[in-house]
């Protein structure tokens, strides 16, 4: 079976499966983005989260807060208020942790060039922790994610270790991050639409034969560079964020496969 046919089989199998996430459905703020990608032949999404504020209870294992085997006291994909957190904290028996987890999206791509297009769009949209994984069977996965998370311990062995004033302060920060998260998702959707439309136009044009027979490998790679095939989708909000970043472009980070 050729790679394209196998990719189509993977896509059909993935999209036909039931949603096994805790929520059981795609988050409202990313439905259109997920539908946009799944409607394109070279892509399909395997998991997503629009961003959330959660309160976990349990024992801290070393320096990491593991969500497995912990009690979820509170989870919301919308701005959170102090009263909800204080009510949830009354149920805590261990070490309660308040977390904000930003948007994350995993996309399987038909080939590396398709992943590079999405990677470039993700970086330009503010998701600077995005990267590509290439598996042994040729599976090319793109993880779109950012670094503006938050993780703060609130109680120890059921005893509250901070003041209500401090919890109110933390929630203001978490809610601000939630709002920024929403703006980045909207920016990603708009930039992705622009990039995919431009890709369709580029593919529809007849390819011209090169007059030069022997070109260096560097020149050929440069012509295939998705950065030149897709103009960067900057807005006034993210130009300042990007202007001091040395990692602009489509320099792809390859993460080892788990």
UniProtKB/TrEMBL annotation:
It comes from the Eukaryota. Residues 224-236 have a biased composition (Basic and acidic residues). Transmembrane segments: none annotated. The keyword tRNA processing applies. Gene3D superfamilies: tRNA wybutosine-synthesizing-like (3.30.1960.10). GO terms for biological process: methylation; tRNA processing. Its EC number is 2.1.1.282. It catalyses: 4-demethyl-7-[(3S)-3-amino-3-carboxypropyl]wyosine(37) in tRNA(Phe) + S-adenosyl-L-methionine = 7-[(3S)-3-amino-3-carboxypropyl]wyosine(37) in tRNA(Phe) + S-adenosyl-L-homocysteine + H(+). Keywords: Methyltransferase, S-adenosyl-L-methionine, Transferase, tRNA processing. The keyword Transferase applies. Residues 10-193 form the tRNA wybutosine-synthesizing protein domain. Residues 205-223 have a biased composition (Basic residues). Pfam families: TYW3. One of its GO terms (molecular function) is methyltransferase activity. Probable S-adenosyl-L-methionine-dependent methyltransferase that acts as a component of the wybutosine biosynthesis pathway. Wybutosine is a hyper modified guanosine with a tricyclic base found at the 3'-position adjacent to the anticodon of eukaryotic phenylalanine tRNA. Belongs to the TYW3 family. This is tRNA wybutosine-synthesizing protein 3 homolog. The gene is LOC113923670.
């Amino acid at each position: 079976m050729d790679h394209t046919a196998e990719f189509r089989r993977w896509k059909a199998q993935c999209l036909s499966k039931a949603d096994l996430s805790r929520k059981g459905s795609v988050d409202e703020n990313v439905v259109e983005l997920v539908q946009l990608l799944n409607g394109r032949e070279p892509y399909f999404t395997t998991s997503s989260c629009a961003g959330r504020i959660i309160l976990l209870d349990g024992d801290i294992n070393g320096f990491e807060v593991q969500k497995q085997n912990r009690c979820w006291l509170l989870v919301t994909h919308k701005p959170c208020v102090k009263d909800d957190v204080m009510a949830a904290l009354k149920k805590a028996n261990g070490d309660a942790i308040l977390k904000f987890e930003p948007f994350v999206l995993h996309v399987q791509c038909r080939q590396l060039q398709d992943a590079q297009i999405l990677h470039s769009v993700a970086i330009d949209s503010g998701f600077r922790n995005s990267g590509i994984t290439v598996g042994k069977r040729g599976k090319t996965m793109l993880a779109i994610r950012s670094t503006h998370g938050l993780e703060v311990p609130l109680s120890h062995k059921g005893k509250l270790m901070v003041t209500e004033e401090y919890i109110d302060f933390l929630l203001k920060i978490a809610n601000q991050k939630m709002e920024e998260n929403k703006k980045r998702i909207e920016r990603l959707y708009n930039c992705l639409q622009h990039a995919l439309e431009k890709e369709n136009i580029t593919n529809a044009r007849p390819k011209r034969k090169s007059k030069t027979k022997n070109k260096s490998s560097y020149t050929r790679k440069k012509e295939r560079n998705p950065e030149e095939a897709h103009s960067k989708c900057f807005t006034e909000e993210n130009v300042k964020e990007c202007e001091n970043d040395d990692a602009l472009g489509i320099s792809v980070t390859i993460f080892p496969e788990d």
